[in-house]
Amino acid sequence: MSRRRRIYEGKAKILFEGPEPGTVIQYFKDDATAFNNKKKGVITGKGVLNNRISEYLMTRLAEIGVPTHFIKRLNMREQLVRQVEIIPIEVVVRNVAAGSLATRLGLEEGERLPRSIVEYYYKADHLNDPMVTEEHITAFGWATIPEIDEILNMSIRVNDFLSGLFLGIGLKLVDFKLEFGRVFDEDQDMIILADEISPDNCRLWDVKTNEKLDKDRFRRDMGRVEEAYQEVARRLGILPED
Ligand code: C5P
Question: Which residues form the SAICAR synthetase/ADE2 N-terminal domain (predicted)?
């Protein structure tokens, strides 16, 4: 690990320079943070599970034509991805009231929303990732109007596909966060899905019992966090061997 040039270290991942120009290695850590770094901990084995889960979901999405940064998994904790210019927006898609939406609008957690809702947050830790609108995004030049249209369309497709995929294994996709990046391909800029999709950035509830199988178990000190991530991998049929 130390031989490679470290490009960036985030809360749950480290990015290293990749073997080819335009590639990056994403290393998944076991570290977990919540409430903008105010709560910190370690979920043993989380990095291995998220590497696998994100590989699986990104691959399924690529199969239905959603362009992603994922190239291939390299080992238990690392995957090779395309280098992107990250768009500084977190896109949250919600199907069921939970988390900050339930708090902000006084909704009962678990209430199905009248329709799926897409929200944008500006990626800025020192500001606590404030919610912004398309107006802010385009006015401040974080993305162009065609780019944000593309991001919205892709986010809705991802939601439709993943909601069905998870329902098939008895899980409700309550909400999730996506990040997108810009690549220069065939002489034009293109937007692709980046970062990861895992129980770190999705809320997944068991359809029958509403048991939480995601990072809320860590955020709310509910215990059995690693087991919850394992259960998601098991239902996806990709539990890594011990
Ligand atoms: O906290 P909130 O209800 O706004 O989170 C909505 C969804 O986005 C959750 O699935 C959460 O895991 C994810 N999220 C994230 N990273 C953030 C904020 C939210 O992955 N910085």
Answer: 7-235
